Structure formats: structure tokens, C-alpha cells
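Quick board copy: two proteins, each given as sequence then C-alpha cells.
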Amino acid sequence: MEMKETIKNRIPIHVDLAPNRNEVYSGICLKSNDDIFVFICFNEETKEFDGFAIIRNYEIDKYREWDREELNEIKNDNSSDFINKLPLEKMNNMLKCLTELENEKLIAIFNESDDDSYFVGRIENLSKNEVELKLLNEDSEWIGNEKVKIEEITYIGFRTSYEKELLNKNVLQ
């Protein structure tokens, strides 16, 4: 099955990052090009769709469409809450995606040097080579800034229940 068909038909997929990383992401792909892959995340715990992710395309080794059994696991198909919510036509690479996310209250960024930790924050400054985030820790406290080179970003997550939960705890929005 061609990815274009999968996108057009909004068929949920599993994206396997092996051998690069020991990660499998699930969701509905909204856009795929040579640089990036934009999709609606599926939350395995709540069995609902939950926010968005942008992944570098080179990270993705293979994907497969969900089978009927997996489709039946969706408790509440809320995917329509996320369809047509992003300016996909403008989101063609990581820099352009970050430009579109400048007004997001919170984003999560993984970079290629470290699989286990990530940065959560809001964009303070953006240049063509790096993004500066005002960081939020697990206790929802603003803890200073971190600069990340855009070429090293492998994953951006936003509008998921995790970011929303952190924002709700943070009183100094």
C-alpha cells in the first residue's frame, strides 16, 4: 500500500524506528515527505488519539497499517478532533514546522544525541539553525532556557495530554 493512499484514507499505522531506535509510534499520518512525517498520535493507555508528532523521515525504517483487531482497540475515535487543525501545506521541514509552532504553549523535543531524555518548553527564539526553548520541568516549573540545533531534532510532540497536564499544573502561564 502506498503511503499516499494510507494518508488519504486516514488509516492508522505503526511506525517502526528500528534499527535507529527502539521505538514504535502509532497514529494517523497526515503528511509525509523526504524530510518529515506529521501524524496524529495514538495513546495506548487511553485508546484514543492524543495530539501530534513530527518525526524526521530518515528515522523511519518501516510502517504497517493496523489490522482489524488493532482498529477495534480504539475506544473513542476522536481523530476528527485533530484533522484539519494544522497548516500542513506550510509544514515541509523541521524549521518550517517550528515556525508554525512558535505560538504553541508547550512542545516536546527529542534530539538525536539522547533517546531517553527530551526537552519540554515553549519556543522563545527561533533562527534557521537553532531553537531556544524556555523549559518546563516535570513539576511544571519554568527552569531556564535550552538551545537545540534544528538539524539534531528527531521528534517534536505537541497538544498531547502530557503537555496539557503540565500546563494545567503550571500556574505561571
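And the next:
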Amino acid sequence: MAHFKLNEADESFLKIPDDGVLLFTGASGTETWIERDRDSVVRVGIKSVATATANAATLGVRIDIGDDSAKGQDGPAPIETQLHASQAVQVLVKAGQRLSIKAYPHADNAQILRTVVWAGDLQPTYPVESKAEADARARANGEAAGFPEPPRGQTPHS
């Protein structure tokens, strides 16, 4: 049985963005969660590299968040071709709530060489405050605790 290795192009493909934090590296994928102390838009990504071990090989990646999923695929490809698949999603993580994430590759007629899963917070387009800050401000103003609405015409995802 052949032993396949990553090449320079594969290593370059697997690099995570500068603003990303590595959550997993290996072959199988991961199940994890993300939690923030303030509402945050988070980008979650997966990249995977495999080598085709037979003709019509495919490499797919998938990110599951709740009942939603996003998929990416490379192939079908001939034997001994390097396959590269990636996918990224942006999701709002509400303050104090855990967001469960499952990210994994799947291959048909291919050997998975490496998979990386990463996450990075996107910068908001308006000032945000933590839940504790919002509650303290509301108490000081005699209002009900909670988060203010974003400025008109802007949303947490814009």
C-alpha cells in the first residue's frame, strides 16, 4: 500500500486565516462548541486534503451547526490526484450561549491526509457591549436588562 504525503501546495492550502484560531488538526474532524461573553459573529472553517486511491475519488467536508449544514467537495478525480476541499460559514454566537459545531471530512476512494478546523471572530460594524455591560447600563438608566438594538440600518451580521 502506498504511503501518501502532503506537498508544499497542500501545506499552503491548509493554512488557516491570520485571524483564525486552530480548533483541530488531524484526519477525522471534530465536535466542539463556541461560547462568547458578548454577541459575536464567528467564522468557522474546515479544510481537508486527500489523495485519490482509485478513479472517481471524491473528498468532501461538512460543517454542522444545529440543524443546518454547509458542504464543500473536490472530485471526482483520477487515481493519485491530490484533492482539496474547504468550507466556511459565518454564524452569530449569542452572549452566554454555547454553539455546538461538528466539522468533518468524508472521502470516497481517497485517503485523507490532513484536516484543519478553525474559527475566528469577525469585527462588528458598530460598537458592542457584553451582556454584563448592557445589564449594568440598563440598571443605571432604570431600563429592563438586555441588549440594545444596533444602529438603524446595521445588523450584527452586516
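Board note added afterward: The chain is about 10% helix and 50% strand.
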